[in-house]
Amino acid sequence: MTYGMRIGWKKGQPEFYGTIGGFASNLEDQTAVYLLTCGHVVTNTVGQRIYVFPKGATEGTYIGDVTKTTPSGNNDANNPKLLDAALVRIENPSLWKIDYKFNGTALHGTEDAKLGQEVTMIGAKSGKTELLVIEVTDYRTSGYSVKNLVHPGDSGSLVISREMPPTAVGLVYAGTPEGLVYSCNIDRIFTFFSGFRLKISPTSLA
Questions:
Q1: How many CB atoms lie within 10 A of CB 132?
Q2: DSSP secondary structure string, 149-166?
Q3: Per-residue pLDDT reduced to its tens digit, 10-52
Q4: Integer Cα distance of 143 and 141 in angstroms
Q5: 186: closest CA among 78, 86, 107, 112?
């Protein structure tokens, strides 16, 4: 299991899905592992059962329940403080082989995006997409797709800086046919989810 896999709340309907953006840990219980995705992907509902869909699968495999989510009202694109994120606690982490490397490279924590920065995301629908950051606000980063477009199903993708060492900067929640991609700033997400941090290796926190 790794970044970019399909995740959804309807076991037998893989068309209702988003993307596994990454993983997280609870500072009070570091044996637990959580999936990070968008709140709207998992219906913004704590307790919602969630399934993962390996490539080509027509039926999902139960992975765990939603533990934390931003309110559905936060999903309004006109909200200047928009946050759209959720954490799903993996039921039995030891049963899953989790790859914490992003496209084969270890992550080195989180940071704010920078204007003009080149970044990358991996969506469940579109795969690897390269973006150029064209706007950064306190809560949101906007990027323009320079290679490949995003599609429905890519919500929840983690946005990673392309320079070395790579860091996580955002979580994709929307896009346009013209190639604009919108993401919530990653550090704002974990400020909201107090006590949780991005998990970048089996033993470490960001």
A1: 16
A2: ---TT-TTPEEEESSSSP
A3: 887 656 689 999 999 998 887 899 999 999 999 999 999 999 9
A4: 7
A5: 112
Give me the DSSP letters along 58-81. SS-EEEEEEEEE--GGGG-TT-TT
What mean pLDDT value characterizes the chain?
88
Q: Which two tokens stand for residue 11?
A: 């076991």
CA distances from 56 to 2, 19, 65, 149, 151 (A): 15, 15, 23, 21, 17
Picking from 200, 193, 204, the residue whose alpha carbon sits closest to that of residue 21 is 200
Task: Kindly tell me if the per-residue pLDDT of 72 is higher than 70.
Answer: yes
Dihedral, CA atoms, 163, 75, 16, 34, nearest 10 degrees? 60
Secondary structure (3-state) at 112: coil
Largest CA distance in the chain: 43
CA nearest to 85, candidates 37, 122, 22: 37
Residue appearing with tokens 């030891």: 94
3-state secondary structure of 114: coil
Q: What are the phi and psi torsion angles at 83 (to 5°)?
A: -135, 130
Q: Which residues contact 161 (CB under 8 A, 6 or more apart)?
A: 111, 113, 117, 118, 119, 120, 167, 168, 169
Helical segments of the chain, H only: 186-192
